[in-house]
Write a structure and sequence with these properties.
It is a single chain. With about 80 residues, the chain is an all-alpha fold. The chain folds into two domains: about 45 residues; about 35 residues. It is built from three helices and no strands. Helix 1 runs antiparallel to helix 2. The longest helix has 24 residues. It is elongated.
């Protein structure tokens, strides 16, 4: 997401001819978009995206269980350790 934001900023600076970016080649201005596409392709291919989504879901589940345990006066569960 940071690469996409950087690409938009550089694109706007090139388009408005602001600062040193005005003299840069279009290849350098558009390169953050290419890097973002490569990052997203790698994240999907490697399972990084799915793993992060599962970790977030597991944490939400544990938080919900702990809220319910505290509501009935039991001790909260500790988060499982990651390898």
């Amino acid at each position: 997401m940071y690469l996409l934001g950087l690409g938009i900023i550089l694109l706007l600076m090139k388009w408005q001819e602001i600062g040193p970016v005005a003299n840069w080649s279009w290849m350098w201005v558009l390169s953050p978009f290419a890097a973002a596409m490569i990052w997203w392709a790698w994240a999907d291919w490697s399972g990084y995206t799915k793993r992060k989504a599962m970790e977030k879901e597991d944490q939400r589940k544990l938080d919900r269980i702990n809220r319910n345990r505290e509501a009935i006066g039991q001790k909260a569960k500790a988060a499982p350790r990651r390898r």
